[in-house]
Amino acid sequence: MHEALLFLDQPAILRHARINAVDGERFGVVSAEGHRYWLSPALGCLLQPAIGDYVLISLSGDQGYILSVLERSQAQSSELRVPGDLYLNLPMGALNIQARNGIALDAGPSLKVEAQSNSARFSKSDINVDRLSVTGVRCDSHWQELNEHAERLSQQVTRHDAQYGDSRRQVRGHEDLHAGSLRQRIAGDWSVRGETLDLFADVAVAIDAQRIKLG
Hints:
Structural class: mainly beta
Strand order of the largest sheet: 1-2-3-5-4
Low-confidence stretches: 1-7
Strand content: 15-25%
């Protein structure tokens, strides 16, 4: 019983102190009694201390730690620092983040997001990427107005269906159309105008109308 008492740890002492110096990961603190220490933040002290902060320190033998920041000396940006990887687990409930002045996210080399469903609403959105790849089963897009600008556009589809109320297309240069077969049905008038008009057929050319006017 007496041997066990020899190995009992002395209780840690808690004191309030003020930070007055910084040296790398260590902070110089001055206690209320005027004692000075060089201490490192404890692993549980997520809020990174700064000069002038009022902190809670723990002293035990020749070791000591800054446990938490009690009061900031002035309004300033706060930093939460965790060494190594951080895993946030919420077995129940949801995570909500509110930021009045915005959120800035720097994910370094990669950003990965997984969810069964996603919903985003923006008044304005600007996206700048060097390369974008999108893969999915179905895509539905609805816009009151859509403007697209590209130096080069390449499309490959198995079947293309398009319905327009009105359509106008202007090609400044040359246009080629290659098709296995082509049928055009015009409910009203069909007009073709050009400086020259050439019509070539390997087998036959047929024109069927009640009246045909040439010249």
